[in-house]
Write a structure and sequence with these properties.
The complex is a heterodimer.
Chain A (H helix, E strand, L loop, with lengths): L3 E12 L2 E12 L3 E5 L6 H9 L6 E6 L2 E2 L4 H7 E4 L11 H11 L6 H10 L15 H13 L5 E5 L7 H16 L3 E5 L3 H7 L2 E6 L2 E7 H7 L5 H17 L1
Parallel strand pairs in A: 3-8, 3-9, 6-7, 7-8
Antiparallel strand pairs in A: 1-2, 1-4, 4-5, 9-10
Helix pairs in contact in A: 3-4, 3-5
Chain B lengths: L2 H17 L1 H22 L12 H32 L2 H5 L5 H30 L7 H25 L3 H17 L14 H5 L3 H14 L6 H25 L6
Helix pairs in contact in B: 1-5, 2-3, 2-5, 3-5, 3-6, 3-7, 3-9, 5-6, 5-10, 6-9, 6-10, 9-10
Classes of the chains: A alpha/beta, B mainly alpha.
């Protein structure tokens, strides 16, 4: 097996008395698509925030390609891309300007050709000089994905990228994800559409109330549960975990 | 340190205020020019000299400083706070950018805006009353350190604020009263006790009088005393802003 691109060891994240992540250890390997599933409030975004620098874990260590995300944050952030869950846009700038700025912020010399190529890839070239506030919701979502890719990250996080997105755009996004994986990018995604994870992911992780209940290869998970769908397996695991906690 | 990221963030901040120049440059220029026309030109001719300087000239450095204080504060506070509110701060937080680069880029851009507006106010004043700068060195010193200090205060305010009302406290209820009571329009030597002594507790007094000494060679406070207050304020806010950025206060959860 290839060495892990991402290694989380005994990660704990507390917000006051509330524990969002409980002693979480996880490894993600080069070139795979890892789907992190879990109900709302399970800690999926918290984990992604700890890895990408939007939050700092209370305990434990996180490494990206062997570099610590706290001590070597400049290195790890160059290696990681994030498509955040919430749509955001800077109303002062156009899509082309936004991409050029994001390249610079990521420490890469702004390259107009690369920015224009990304705009074409995500069907935004016709809106390249429009203010981002005039873009449709789908276009803003695509711009977020393009921004996350400006520095060609080795590890890409997609935090519910298809939430509120129409079927056509969802298909386009997942096709793009497949192409990125084929090009060698490691992808960690969260989604509430379990069938998408079933179709795309190499490995599945199920997170519930800050605890990682399961990490397994998709095929073996499905095989072990004798032809049941991932959604059924997921719901059963969540119910069991809830039952254990209630008992 | 990433010099590309620092340069990009600085240019982004300069372009941000340049794109809305009517609001960020022209509006404060018009407002301050109106103050100058009313207090300096219309009323000034009826007032006697202050500290041996015609009143119309006396108010110029105060108005320039008041403008620079306000604009420097507003540039960092509004930019950083809006980024927090609309979520675009994420673009910076996931980037390989440390506290130092953020600090230099935001403060640098705010200083550029403040100096542009302050210079334009000075040019408008020169159309009515010509006078050369008395001490260029002191003028540059107070311009640089006061604008940097207020830009830092703007960053602290933006980091602390959780709604627009919080942010509005500073320009409306702190900076404007302190500027008016800091000798923009009068010399504190004209005040009776205890107001003369109370005025000396106002840090804006030292900023206004520092620039007044640079412009006119007269001031209520010695330039060294003013420089000391400005430097202490700058160092304190530099340390505070740096510590807040490094800790991720109200930025990183």
């Amino acid at each position: 097996m290839k060495p892990p691109v991402l290694r989380c060891r005994h990660v704990v994240k507390r917000y006051g008395k509330f524990t969002a992540l409980e002693d979480l250890s996880l490894e993600v390997y080069e070139g795979e698509i890892f789907a992190l599933l879990g109900p709302n409030g399970a800690g999926k975004s918290t984990l992604i925030h700890c890895i990408t620098g939007l939050a700092k874990q209370s305990e434990g260590t996180i490494e990206v390609l062997g570099f610590d995300t706290v001590d070597d944050f400049r290195t790890t952030r160059r290696l990681v891309g994030l498509v955040p869950q919430e749509i955001n846009y800077d109303p002062f700038f156009t899509p082309l300007e936004s991409l050029m700025i994001q390249m610079g912020l990521m420490g890469v010399k702004p390259n107009r050709e690369r920015a224009e190529s990304l705009l074409r890839t995500f069907a935004l070239d016709e809106k390249r000089d429009a203010y981002t506030r005039t873009l449709s919701g789908g276009m803003k979502r695509r711009l977020l994905v393009a921004k996350a890719l400006v520095h060609e990250p080795r590890l890409l996080f997609l935090d519910e990228p298809t939430a509120g997105v129409d079927v056509e755009l969802r298909r386009e996004l997942w096709q793009e994800v497949e192409e990125l994986r084929a090009a060698g990018t490691t992808i960690v995604l969260t989604t509430h559409y379990i069938e998408e994870a079933e179709k795309l992911a190499d490995r599945i992780g199920i997170l519930h109330k800050g605890e990682l209940l399961l990490v397994e290869r998709r095929e073996s998970l499905l095989e072990r549960h004798g032809g049941r769908s991932l959604e059924e397996i997921y719901l059963e695991l969540i119910r069991k975990a809830d039952g254990r906690q209630a008992a | 340190m990433s010099t590309i990221a620092l340069k990009t963030l600085f240019i982004k901040e300069v372009r941000r205020f340049s794109k809305v120049w009517l609001q960020t440059v022209l509006s404060p220029l018009v407002t301050t020019s109106l103050y100058f026309l009313v207090f300096g030109v219309a009323l000034g001719s009826r007032l006697r000299e202050i500290s041996g300087v015609p009143y119309i000239q006396f108010v110029v450095p105060g108005l320039v400083m008041m403008t620079m204080v306000r604009d420097s504060f507003l540039n960092t506070s509004s930019s950083l706070f809006q980024s927090k509110i609309n979520g675009t701060i994420t673009d910076i937080l996931v980037a390989p950018i440390g506290a130092f680069e953020m600090l230099v880029a935001y403060v640098g851009a705010a200083m550029i805006r403040a100096v542009i507006v302050g210079s334009l106010v000075y040019v408008v004043a020169l159309c009515f009353t010509w006078f050369p700068l008395h001490h260029v060195g002191w003028t540059l010193f107070f311009t640089a350190f006061v604008t940097a200090t207020l830009a830092l205060l703007g960053m602290v305010a933006a980091l602390w604020a959780e709604k627009f009302d919080h942010l509005a406290i500073f320009p409306n209820f702190v900076l404007l009263p302190l500027a008016f009571l800091g000798g923009v329009f009068y010399s504190i030597d004209l005040l009776p006790e205890p107001w003369h002594t109370v005025s000396r507790l106002n840090p804006l007094l030292y900023m206004v009088n520092g620039l007044r000494f640079g412009f006119l060679g007269v001031a209520d406070v010695s330039p060294l005393g003013s420089a000391a207050v400005v430097l202490v304020s700058f160092v304190f806010l530099l340390g505070l802003t740096g510590a807040l950025l490094r800790s991720g206060y109200n930025l990183r959860s």
